[in-house]
Amino acid sequence: KQIREGDLDKMGQVGKGILANWGSMERNKKLIEEIKNLIEIDGRKSILLYSLSVNHSKAMTLALQRSGISAVSIDSKTNSAERREFIRRFILGEINILCNYEIFTTGFDAPNVDAIMICRPIQSKTLYDQIIGRGLRGKQFNGTEDCIIVVPNDEIKIKTKKGLEDWNVNAADI
Predict the structure, then answer these.
(1) Beta pairing, strands 47-50 & 97-100
(2) How far apart are CA 117 and CA 49, in angstroms?
(3) Residue 117 and residue 99: Cα distance in Å, rounded?
(4) Rounded percentage of the chain residues whose pLDDT exceeds 90
């Protein structure tokens, strides 16, 4: 699937109509399986999930809960008291996964984050750096020893004036 420059909004992010295709049941099932592997095989306990949209965040949360995984969805309409409580419980290890859409990109501090799953396209290297930085504190700064970063390869390309580009920033370029 190709995304053309006209599909991008004024901030350079992919429009909602295009994102709807990425929120398919088949894709979500694969994401859930990957999360199960992170927990069951890799022993990850505190995962930040960056969703395609608010609805995608809520759908992923429901699917995770139905799979027996402790997860909550936080978005801009989550009231501040509830948000603080969810974050507190996440830091204590009572909640395994915080699903969000454009909430925990900057200024979020949870030293226990040991995996990050980025389920959305990111056009900005700076934003990508901020997101993965939520899990890369390291032991020196009271963080985890390591953090697994998962960026699904959807093989979706963006056509810009510069040509055809992958939607995600390659970790090797950082």
Answers:
(1) parallel
(2) 5
(3) 9
(4) 33
E-assigned strand segments in the chain: 2-4, 47-50, 71-74, 97-100, 115-118, 148-150, 157-160, 163-166
Strands 157-160 and 148-150: unpaired
Residue 18 pLDDT grade (very low, low, confident, very high; cuts 50, 70, 90): very low
Per the structure block, which two tokens stand in for 8?
């991008």
Q: In what order do the strands lie in the sheet with 47-50?
A: 71-74, 97-100, 47-50, 115-118, 148-150
Reported confidence tier of residue 164, pLDDT bands at 50, 70, 90: very low
Residue 34: closest CA among 118, 138, 157, 103? 118
Q: Which is nearest to 50 in space by CA: 128, 166, 155?
A: 128
CA distance 87 to 95: 8
Asked whether the predicted pLDDT for residue 57 surpasses 60, the reply is yes
Classified as helix, coil or strand, 159 is: strand
